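[09:14] KT: can someone run the structure on this one? pasting the chain below
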Amino acid sequence: MADLQVVPWILAIPVKRTAIAKSRLAAAYPQHRPELARAFAVDTTAAALASGLVRAVLVVTDDPVVAADVTAIGAVVVPDVPGADLNAALRHGAARAAERFPGHGVAALSADLPALRPAELTAVLAACTAARSFVIDEPGTGTTMLAAAPGVALDPRFGVGSALAHQASGAIPIDLTGIDSVRRDVDTAADLAHAVQLGVGPATADVMSLVLGSAIGSEGLAC
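[09:31] RB: done, structure tokens below
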């Protein structure tokens, strides 16, 4: 956790119910897709909590298994009260973060970063000096993190083409090298193969061991 002399960040991580999450992984990992989605969220949360600039992580979810898993490693669970889309969940999480931790910046982080490195996340958060900043994903069109300074509305615009949408809204893209793990969100088997090459966290590694052991999805690893 962060040194209390440093003004740290509060992270909001939205997690869908894993029964419906990561649908594009279903073809390659038909039996393990829910477990992978849950593992991604756990590894992302654990890495975020290990960053020296993170004061707390709020996981916005209605999935009871995910809630139990992330609570066990130190996250705060916020029910997805709006029950609407991703941006509504993030607005709700950001509002709860501001209420609980006044005076802190709030950042929305993708739950699908199984290779996330705490040091890389810390470097990104340290670079968030604008009112609102964001990280463009590996393909170059989406967003893996959106950060707002204390007292500034998060104003999330996640979805198709979110990188352009966030930039159009005034957010500043973070231009750093060496932050591959922050940019590598996973939607497809090819994305997961790249994350495995970067080095995934223990929860995802455990599921991948099951995948390899049952010879399901091994083709995805070769992408």
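[09:33] KT: thanks! Residues 9-215 form a domain with the Spore Coat Polysaccharide Biosynthesis Protein SpsA; Chain A fold (CATH 3.90.550.10).
[09:34] RB: yep, looked fine to me
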